[in-house]
Write a structure and sequence with these properties.
The complex is a heterodimer of chains A (408) and B (216).
Chain A (H helix, E strand, L loop, with lengths): L20 E5 L6 E2 L5 E2 L2 E8 L9 E5 L26 E2 L4 E2 L4 E5 L14 E2 L4 E2 L9 H14 L7 E5 L1 H12 L6 E5 L7 H15 L17 H15 L2 H7 L21 H16 L2 H13 L2 H5 L2 H5 L5 E7 L7 H13 L3 E7 L7 H4 L1 H36 L1
Parallel strand pairs in A: 5-8, 5-11, 6-7, 11-12, 12-13, 13-14
Antiparallel strand pairs in A: 1-4, 2-3, 4-8, 9-10
Helix pairs in contact in A: 1-2, 3-4, 3-7, 4-6
Chain B lengths: L6 E2 L8 H6 L6 E5 L5 H10 L2 E6 L2 H10 L3 E3 L14 E7 L8 H11 E9 L4 H10 L4 E2 L17 H10 L2 E10 L2 E2 L6 H4 L2 E8 L3 H6 L1
Classes of the chains: A alpha/beta (408), B alpha/beta (216).
Chain lengths: 408, 216
């Protein structure tokens, strides 16, 4: 670069510089009652907002992030020059979630490690990090915190809740738990429960962390080094599940990293490009993620089962009058189309308003983060239509209540 | 372009939405298989208070449906309707599509699995002008709006009134009404319908013991 000293200026199609905000909820005596039965609080919540809340407060969209995401969906943090927020292509001025029209909120999940209370936070009772003394968290607990944040922001009804993967599970749980808090639910590459195969991969990831000699029962915060290798290995395995056979083939094939021929050397751990790539992903992940948070969140994902909790998927969602939009991706083998169709079937049975598409993509589970255009084409008309419906309902209500007065 | 060939009615225009709407009760739960841009379902919802669901295989049509607030599910009728639960609907609509699916008998059976009643519109390939065309010029029938030839037509099956009755019998489907469409209008008591109708409008129900058990 010619001018290293000059200040970094974000590309102008993003929302520009943003900051993470912080609020403390569930302070004594109003602690959160967790699904495990434990009362827990206070809870710090890290969140970001983009765009402006309308006077009618009818344009708020809550984005639920996936397993290892954070509140930083779009734009750039001060000092951040390499990568913007994780869904920057989808959230911003004129984009799918158009910040010129909508007020977008995203919060780091409970038990995460980027600002919301989690195992790496200080336990006010001991003055030390929680570590594995952190309570067991479920998707429902995460959603209760999100819901409280929305109330704290003075928003009665969200225009939409949108999320992919674990974020999609949150969106579904939210609709089941607080059916009146949103007018639309967008659930991408998700399901009513994680498959046994998905649980199996999480088991391997947790095993990698637990068996790392530096894990130390989760008490590694004061050590020079935590379970870096275990966490990296967990990520490498998980990362494979986010890709597809075709996407790996397209990206790397059988190409070698540094040579055009085999070395026939057993010392050399990675010769293939795909190996270097996975190692790199593991290494980068360790720099930004906490192993104990990873344990908490994979457990939350494993436990999630909408039907189990509510009797059936239909029973879970039939209290919601939201417009449901579900999407699956052809090459996603972690959350398959069949799993989305199970949800569709139950929603149809429950006479809910449900649209579903299977989008063609070779990008595997990650497609919901990468295939932005087809997503925009679906979400745009949904948001516009839903906002009109909200306005019509407001009018009806206003007319109804003034009518009541006349009658009285 | 020399001689005029007789053209099959345009799938969209052949039967008006109004005719379908006349046979759909208020507040019904309706599924439209191949709902296109969702126009019919929007009308049914707004004017008849129906609870509606579309099924469509074209993504851009689904976008339009969503914009209208008509819920639409991406589904290929040739892959079956297994996602749709039994008896989830009062009425299933299939307009000018049966001749285009790979397995018409399976689709008909599925319609009466998911709904109490099926409204089906099919072209009548026994129309006298088609007969004439086949006999006189020796050419296969084509449709009005698009210059389909036998090798690129979406119409995979050629059926007539007589054929449809036979299939209904085999599937134990009860024909509640059979309405010939002649010159774009429904003619309940038409003379020589299997020769004069360009399309046929059927109202179908399950044929077997369903009714007797209900009345017992």
């Amino acid at each position: 670069m010619a001018n290293d000293d000059s200040e970094f200026i974000p590309d102008d199609d993003s929302i520009g510089f943003v900051e993470t905000q912080q609020v403390t909820l569930f302070e004594a005596p109003n602690e959160l009652c967790l699904e495990s039965g434990v009362r827990f609080g206070p809870i710090d919540v890290a969140y970001e907002t983009y765009g402006t809340l309308s006077p009618e407060k009818d344009n708020a969209i809550f984005v639920c992030h996936a397993l290892t995401g954070d509140a930083h969906v779009a734009g750039w943090h001060d000092g951040e020059t390499k990568k913007p927020g994780w869904w920057n292509d989808f959230v911003g001025p004129g984009k799918g979630l158009d910040t010129n029209k909508y007020f977008v909120i995203c919060a780091n999940v409970l038990s995460g490690c980027t600002g919301t209370t989690g195992p790496s936070s200080i336990d006010p009772k001991t003055g030390k990090q929680y570590g594995l003394h952190f309570p067991f968290i479920t998707v429902g607990d995460i959603v209760k915190v999100h819901s409280a944040l929305v109330e704290h922001l003075g928003i009665k009804k969200l225009l939409a809740v949108i999320g992919g993967s674990l974020g999609g599970m949150q969106a579904l749980d939210w609709a089941a738990r607080f059916p009146d808090q949103m007018a639309a639910v967008v659930c991408l590459a998700a399901a009513a429960k994680l498959s046994a195969q998905g649980i199996a991969f999480n088991v391997v990831g947790r095993r990698a962390i637990f068996t790392d000699p530096n894990f130390n029962g989760g008490e590694y915060y004061d050590e020079p080094e935590g379970p870096r290798f275990g966490l990296a290995l967990a990520r490498m395995v998980a990362h494979i599940t986010y890709l597809s056979d075709v996407s790996i083939e397209d990206k790397f094939g059988r190409r070698l990293q540094n040579s055009s021929h085999f070395e026939y050397n057993l010392d050399q751990e990675t010769e293939f490009q795909v190996g270097s790539y996975l190692h790199y992903q593991g290494k980068r992940f360790v720099e930004r993620f906490d192993a104990n948070s990873y344990l908490c969140l994979t457990h939350a994902m494993d436990y999630f089962d909408l039907a189990e909790e509510h009797g059936s998927i239909r029973a879970a969602l039939e209290k919601s009058n939201a417009n449901f939009l579900l999407a699956s991706y052809t090459s996603d083998w972690l959350f398959t189309t069949a799993q989305s169709l199970e949800l569709v079937s139950e929603l149809v049975k429950g006479k809910r308003n449900v649209s579903f598409v299977e989008l063609t993509s070779s990008k595997g589970h990650d497609a919901f983060l990468l295939e932005i255009e087809p997503l925009e084409q679906l979400v745009r008309p949904l948001l516009e239509r839903t906002r009109l419906e909200m306005a019509a309902q407001r009018q009806q209500k206003a007319a109804g209540s003034s009518g009541d007065k006349h009658d009285g | 372009m020399g001689k005029k060939r007789y053209c099959m009615p345009d799938p969209q225009a052949a039967i008006t939405d109004e005719l379908l709407m006349q046979h759909i009760d208020r507040d019904s739960r309706v599924i439209d298989l191949g709902c296109g841009d969702g126009r019919l379902l929007e009308k049914l919802r707004d004017d008849h208070g129906c609870s509606v669901q579309g099924v469509e295989v074209d993504l851009s049509e689904i976008h339009t449906c969503i914009g209208r607030g008509v819920p639409a599910i991406f589904m290929d009728l040739d892959q079956g309707l297994s996602t749709v639960p039994d008896d989830a609907f009062d009425i299933a609509v299939l307009s000018q599509t049966l001749q285009q699916v790979r397995h018409p008998a399976a689709v008909l059976s599925e319609m009466l699995r998911i709904s109490r009643r099926a409204l089906v519109v099919v072209p009548n390939f026994a129309h006298w002008r088609i007969r004439q065309q086949v006999v006189v010029s020796g050419r296969t029938p084509v449709t009005q709006s698009l210059p389909y030839s036998w090798y690129n037509t979406p119409n995979l099956h050629f059926m007539s009134m007589a054929d449809f009755r036979e299939l209904a019998g085999r599937l134990n489907v009860r024909i509640v009404h059979e309405i010939p469409i002649i010159a774009g209008r429904s003619r309940r008591r038409a003379w020589l319908p299997n020769v004069r109708a360009e399309s046929l409008f059927y109202i179908l129900e399950r044929g077997d013991s369903d009714d007797s058990s209900a009345s017992a």
